[in-house]
Structure formats: C-alpha cells, structure tokens
Amino acid sequence: MRYEAPGSIESAVALLAQEKGRAYVLAGGTDLLVRLRGGYIEPDLVVDVKRIESMRKIVPEAGGFRIGAAVPAAELGEHPAVKKLWPGVVEAVELIGSKQVQGRATMVGNLCNASPAADSVPAMVAAGAVATVVGPNGKRNLPVEEISTSPGKTTLAKGEIVESILLAARPPHSGDAYLRFIPRTEMDIAVVGAGVNITLDDKGVCKAARVALGAVAERVLLVGPAADALIGTKLDEAALDKLAAAASAACRPIDDKRGTKEFRIKVAGVLARRAATIALERARKS
Amino acid sequence: MSQVHVTAKINGDTTEYLCEPDETLLDVLRNRLGLTGAKEGCGTGDCGACSVTLDGRLVCSCLVLGAEANGREVRTIEGMAHGETLHPLQRKFLEHAALQCGICTPGFLVAAKALLDKNPDPSETEIRYWLAGNLCRCTGYDKIVRAVQDAAAEMRKG
C-alpha cells in the first residue's frame, strides 16, 4: 500500500484516476481504517485528503455554508453559525460515534461510506444538500441523495472525489431536525433515522418540506409522499398522521439483530412525526 | 512497501520515525517509540483505550495512520504528569480508586483532560456523554465520573 497526502484536489484526483490497483480516499478514516486493519480491504493506494486546505474549511456561500470534505464532525459542532442555520444537520453529524470519532469523522465520509444507517445522510437529504464532485473530467454538482445506491456502493466514478457539501441559505420560518432510534442513549448505529426540513409561510402554513429516512432500505430514502402530507397544512394532528403513514409506507427494511422489519416500519412513522414537530418549533422561531 | 518518513511533535518533543504506510499511530507509539501508555483494546475505535490528542483534538490512535502525524502534534498519557508530579486527574483517579486493571485508564485520563481543557466545570451528564467512547469493564463508571468531578473542582480553585 502506498500512502499519499497531496496538497491539491487536482493531484488527489490524478493519483486516484491513474492508480491501476485498488485506491481509496482517506478523510477521517473512522470507517476506512477499521476495514483496512480488519483485512476487509487491501488498498494499493490510500489518498489522504486532509492536507488539501480548501477541503478543510467551512466557508460562507450565498447565505449558506460550504463544508469541506475533510472537516471533522467536531469542527462542525463548534461552528455556531452553521448550527443556527441547519440545526438538524449539525445534530445528526454530532450523533456519529464518540468524541474520539467526532475528532476525525467527516460528513462527506459518512456520505461516501454509503451505509444506509449513516446518521448525517437523512438530515443532509432533507436539507437538500448538494455535493460538489471533482474528477478527471472536471466538476459536477449533485444532490446528496444521488451519491449512495446500496450499502458501500456509490455513483462516484473512478478518480472522483466529493470536494464539499453545500448547505444552502434558507427562507425565513424554516426549520429542520433529525432523530434516530437506538437501543441505548449514546454510541450506537441507527435502527431507524428520520430527517425533516420544512418552510412555513407568514401564516404558518407549510409551503415546502423534505422528509428523508435512514436504515429502512438499501440506501437513505427521500420520501416525497411524506413531504406532500405536510405541504399546505399547519402540521396539525391530521397532517402528522398522514406524514407518519407515508413514512412507514415508504420503508422496505431488512430484519437484523438491531430491529425487525415491523419495528422499523412502525418507528419510521413515529420518528418522522417527532422530527417534524421539532422542525415546526424551529421554523416558528426563525 | 516502502516506509514513510515522519517528523511529528510528540509530547512537546520533535520526533522522527519511519513507519509502514498502513501502520497505525497506535502501533507507532507503542512499538517504535516505546510509548506504551495508549492501549489497544478493540482496534476499531469503539473502546477509547488508545485515546491521544492530534493537534489538540481527541482521537483514537488506532484510527489514525502513523504517516498522517507528519508535521502534527501528538500528546499521549506519557505527557500528562510533570516529572514526578501527577496531573490532578491522575491523582484523583488514584484517590477515588477509579481503576482496577488499568487498561482503560490512560484513555480515560486523556479523554477527561480533553474535556476539562474545553469545559472546566462539566455537569455529571456532560462527563458521562463525553466519556461514552471510553469503555471500562472492571469498575463501572461511577468512580471514574466522581474522580473527574473532583479533579475539575480542584483545578477550578487553581
């Protein structure tokens, strides 16, 4: 295995594109090193992107924030302005692992690791976050929900790297929230995760909504019918019932040691409803 | 596999070493530099026994490559006491008997110090959440939490 720590994204892309063997990007390393040390992968090349200055920064952009792919979770949690604008996304990122893991793990790593149970991904999908991807053929932007296809698999081509994530500016009266179910209070993998992001008009009627679910399918799901249940309502009980039903209906989970299909389907509705209630409170205050 | 030449500051001393590209910082510390305070519990970032700080940030050294430390600053449990004088956290862990076998202790101390550097007056809940990434299978956590609270109180008095 070769270890390279290039200083620019262009060199990182060139290294990955030219490598004939198995090449991996190293950001926080909290997934990659576990797989490497466990013998699950045998890389020929590992490209550490943490020496690329532009990828280590959180930069304000058009009223929102661009989060570099090498920014650790702990830094995001310490950024009051991002937390204020997108509280649901930051709280989701802060749920990943321990303080030790937070010191290394990145939001983009969480995305590209492509686990359906990744905590930050439903929150990012609900937020309408956009990934900037750089590769041998230049730059492209794509919605985060188009990155992962199934466990461990992404749509990224050889040599492509996610450089950053844009969390956009948002209209007044907007709020987002992320909740997950785990059997304990800390340090566990989501059995179900739900991210909700809404915008209200001046009369308190929901005019835009996005709902995303984690750990209930082979990838994180953006659930259109669940969002439709909220739009045009004041998130009254009837609307929340419809939201919960639509969220449950969208699930196609597996049974495993952490939860049964039936449990996940039921809890997805419950969590979507609770997350929507928190998003509503936040929207009313913003 | 050609070795990587690394220059890092470890507990304040500029240190040079050669390591394999896939070798963890934990293995470098223990096997190449003789700093055996950080322990390998799980090797997967779950137990916190290998906690160190990297550029001031609490991390599991089992999830850091030795090569990544180039130009960076690492602090380990070996840098915690001043000569013969123990850090208040170390002293309070002894006073409260907050350890039995001791495998987890260096990690708890490094993690607790990182907490107190950030927050000199943490609540019990904050201490418990902060230390959720450090596992102890001997004592349970009450004595550890009390030792951290007591050390924090003493350090606040200066």
From TrEMBL, chain A:
**What domain of life does the native source organism fall in?**
Bacteria
InterPro entries listed in its UniProt record: CO_DH_flav_C, CO_DH_flav_C_dom_sf, Diverse_Substr_Oxidored, FAD-bd_PCMH, FAD-bd_PCMH-like_sf, FAD-bd_PCMH_sub1, FAD-bd_PCMH_sub2, Mopterin_DH_FAD-bd
Q: Give the keywords, sorted.
A: FAD, Flavoprotein
- FAD-binding PCMH-type domain location is 1-172
Pfam families the UniProt entry points to: CO_deh_flav_C, FAD_binding_5
**A single GO molecular function term of this UniProt record:** FAD binding
- This protein is called Oxidoreductase
The source organism is Hypericibacter adhaerens
Upper lineage: Bacteria, Pseudomonadati, Pseudomonadota, Alphaproteobacteria, Rhodospirillales
UniProtKB/TrEMBL annotation, chain B:
Specify whether Kinase is a keyword of the entry: no
Please give the SUPFAM superfamilies that the UniProt record associates with this protein.
Answer: 2Fe-2S ferredoxin-like, CO dehydrogenase ISP C-domain like
Which residues does the UniProt record annotate as the domain 2Fe-2S ferredoxin-type?
A: 4-80
Q: Which GO terms describe its molecular function?
A: 2 iron, 2 sulfur cluster binding; metal ion binding; oxidoreductase activity
Protein name stated in the entry: Ferredoxin
Q: Does the keyword Ribonucleoprotein apply?
A: no
Q: What keywords sit in the KW lines?
A: 2Fe-2S, Iron, Iron-sulfur, Metal-binding, Oxidoreductase
Q: Gene3D superfamilies annotated for this entry?
A: 3.10.20.30, [2Fe-2S]-binding domain
Species name for this entry? Hypericibacter adhaerens
Q: What is the superkingdom listed in this entry's lineage?
A: Bacteria
